[in-house]
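It is worth pausing here to work through a concrete case rather than discussing structure prediction in the abstract. The textbook approach is simple: state the sequence, then state the predicted structure, then interpret. We follow exactly that order.
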Amino acid sequence: MKQLIYYPPGCYGTFVNWICDTNQHVGTDDLPFGEFGNSHKYYNKNPGLLQPKQRELFLKSNRNFGVQRGCWPFNVGIKLLNLNQDPKFYYLTCKQDIAGIIDSCDQILVVHPTVDSRVWWYQNYCEKVVISQQIINQNIPLIHKIFENCLWMTEHDPVLRAKHHLDLQLMHAGFKELYSKFDKNTALDFETWQLRQTLAWELHSQGPDYYQCWQKISTDFDKIKFVSLEQLRDNFSSTVHEILDYFDINTEIVNSLDYIESEWSQRQEHRFKDRTVNNIVKSILSGQSLDWTLEKLNLFDEVYIEKILHYEHGVELLPTNNWPCNTEQFLRIIK
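Step two, the predicted structure:
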């Protein structure tokens, strides 16, 4: 059997793979969770189909591989970038990618974001998608060929990692314009407001297809199972049962699902960030009083708020390194 979990990085593919691969009651020592609430304790033991030769063997061999996982697009396995701002880029790229592997797989599960989990997914990608030095050491020399321009993914500081990733895109016009506007040669020298503004532009440049494509793709492949982040969050036990049934897995882990859900959920601090961000944006647009001090927003929440306000509602903000914590303060930084 060739069973594949296909997912954008940050959508818990490793966590779901661990669930499918664990045939026992689960206690504290068995949990896969690593730094930032990701599942990289399991990742370090099982990095999935990371190398091109592994993916090629998986698709061509008749071996029983069990459940494996691979990031989108399957033939690349790293972050996709819509450099030409094509409104159908993600839909067409992933549809073509899946079409190229579907006949070689017995079953494919897609775990994906939606418009209602786009901030949650963005936070996960920025914070949790870190490749450990252990993985690099275990996969030398091939891993360096894959990530020769992506060693930024080994940086554990999410903000510093974001700066490095922006610098990798400097050859593209939109980034050149912003860097020139700020009179900077590297994002490492950005002030906070400049970094926030550039990251908001990067999000905008990808277009809504970035997270909306999965609904369209699901209508093209009726034999593939699609699971959204919200399903995993809001109906954890029933969704896991559906996944295990889909892969025809009978495992003792089902007796530990309440415990696993509790341990997983308390480590996912961003799972309701879409609701938080949307409420803040709504209060700003309506002028309704709201204080979000207790929400403890980070830079990436601020990026998404600026992205929605500026690119979806035409609201321009004055430069500020200190993000406001209530509506009254925020209205003062609107141009």
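Step three, interpretation. The chain has 17 helices and four strands. The chain has two domains: 2-149+208-265, 273-331.
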